[in-house]
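Notebook B, p. 112. Complex prediction, attempt 2.
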Amino acid sequence: MSIYEIRDMAIEIDGKRLVEGVNITVEAGKCTAIIGTSGSGKSLSCLTPFGLTSGVAQGSITLDGIDLIRADAHQMQEARSRLTGFVFQQPLTALTPHLTIGAQLQEAAAQAGSSRLSRHELAQRLDRVGLSRADERLDQFPHRLSGGERQRVMIAAAIAHEPKLLIADEPTSALDASLRGEIMALLDELRLERGLAMLLVSHDLASVEGHADHLIVMDQGRVVESGPTASLITNPQEEYTKRLIAATARLDEPAPQLQAVGDILLETEAVTVTFPRPGWRRGKIKAVTDTSLHVREGEALAIVGGSGSGKSTLGKAIAGIGPLTSGTISWQGQPLPKRRARTVAMRALIQPVFQDPVASLDPQWKVRDIVAEPVKNLQPEILRKDRDAIVLKALEDVELGEEYLDRMPTSLSGGQAQRVAIARAIIASPQLLVLDEATSALDPLVGSSILQLLRKLQQANNLSIIFITHDIASARRLCHRIAVLDEGVVVEMGDMDSVISNPTAVTTQKLIAAS
Amino acid sequence: MKALLKRDHWPLWVVLSVMALALILPAILPWTYDQIDWDAVRAPAFSGSHIFGTDEIGRDRLARLAAGTQVTLMVAIAAALVSLVVGIAWGATAGWVGGKVDEAMMRFVDALYALPFMFIVILLMVIFGRSILLVFVGIGLVEWLTMARVVRGQVMALKQRPFILAAEAAGSPPLTIILKHILPNIAGVALAYLMLTVPQVVMVESFLSFLGLGVQEPLTSLGILVKEGADDMDMTPLGLLLPGGLLVLLLVCLTIEGERLRDTYS
């Protein structure tokens, strides 16, 4: 029985038609997921029928017998507050900072017209979404809770009034990788237990395919393809869907052919990084503790961990652009000096690429000068006009043409900007690239093309790579070995496939479950 | 710069016109600012060649107004530039080096903030005597503090940005990074605060002059003109209204422009 049905919906904002021909059906106890890149209209399609965007919807939309297009204010109120629950991406901003968790829940229930709940009932609801010490939590304010706990509270609030439809807009995207699996499992459990109909919105195919019964793929405001999850994934009809599925890394896909590795290039021994606590308080924060690892020639090492695990700090220390408190980093047996003491030639060996491609290019500089910067320092004797040829060669290597030379970073798309950043890194002829979440801020299709480019460059130049990420599945496409970091400590290290098939550390198991 | 010309930046144009007038007028007026017309003491407006009349000892008001505006704006621009240079150098160093050096440098700024500024200036005047140089020193001493704080904050935020780290990885030495990457990226904010510093300096200079601590007779400034006009306002209100009105106009225009710039960049 379908609870929520959208037939041939179009959405206009200010007379501009942004979404067209959308059909969505959600059945009780089932989960329908909308997949699409940013700007594909997926959130718009979910929220507009309830008047939560500035758009105007046309077509036929029925929620449990109520026609939402023709609904009057009272019916709309009923549909929105009593029949539907919402879970949003940002769990911090979705909770009011000045109300305790208990008060928030009470409010959510009261708005749906239910009578005042007793303290015991409220605690039960928190308990149901897997929050420990529920009674204590009722008196806490949102800032005391972690991101995952807040999202659990959001879910508790969304289902407090027993809605029939739950709309979850990127419920796990803002969460730490290791928590995503748990939250999705909780949503599944609640859905089955209460016969909830669930509409899930996500940009990440991998995170929903195990949970959704029905998939809808959207691109540029249209539905590209829709169908039952299993058949859509195994037998996609449309080109766009095929590309999307190919771009999504999976742990069960066949292992890639990786190139042979040589001698040890980089070795870190007991690397520790501590930061002083901010302000006048004493004490230190240990970001990385006693980390020892090595990278061979032509080898790719994945450093995987949740946010705050110290993986970026470690990467920066290795690349010589971050602090190093103690321990040694050596290159072919020779110790590398600390940050400021590294020479230009040492720096050229190890080049970083960052997560946010636009922020990693100076907004005031042209692409030509950005890419040429390492050359200027490394080979100052080269004249300006000869430099252009070298820059052009590097741009060609990252599949960008001459027309990009005079572009400003702000005029580039995320994928183009990341290619420019990679061009800047490889123009120095480095032997090791440190990629700090280099693909995770990009749309899946773009991210996977960047990953392909990196593999190509790695093979062409026999590059070594340190691939810092939270996503084990995409790391597996590139890396020989994996090191799992938790709270600054390496909890597990070994060959990619043996770690994935037989994880021993709890952190690893969680990260694998989330992929 | 193009944006400044394109949009309706009337306050900026008002200030520039006043500046141009103050520069041109002394050359074409028959009287200089310190020349006394013995035949026309306290002349009313439009009497003979004195468009706005003369003051109580027979000097042409318009000539004095032009000269006073020149001095005031010169002091303001010079002091603002000094504050810009010192503030950026101090703030950028503190922000870039960080740690203990930063703490020490910024506590020094806090200490200077805490000093009663007027008291210090008056003390300096008493010890060294009145001179226009001292006005510069006194004003420059205070006005760079805000600039240093603003620049330090900006540098600290920028320092963590990936493109600065990438420049470091590309082997650019720290000085190059500061000059080529950091300064161009804080130029907008610095310019906005520079624009806000100018009216503040105008204000301080006029205040000092009003108290009789600014520039020395017969050289004049808007502050001195306001003071002279105020002494004599029951007889000739024009003497107060002209320099006072011009001062208000300049302050309002500069502040509007500065706030507009600040809103654009921060």
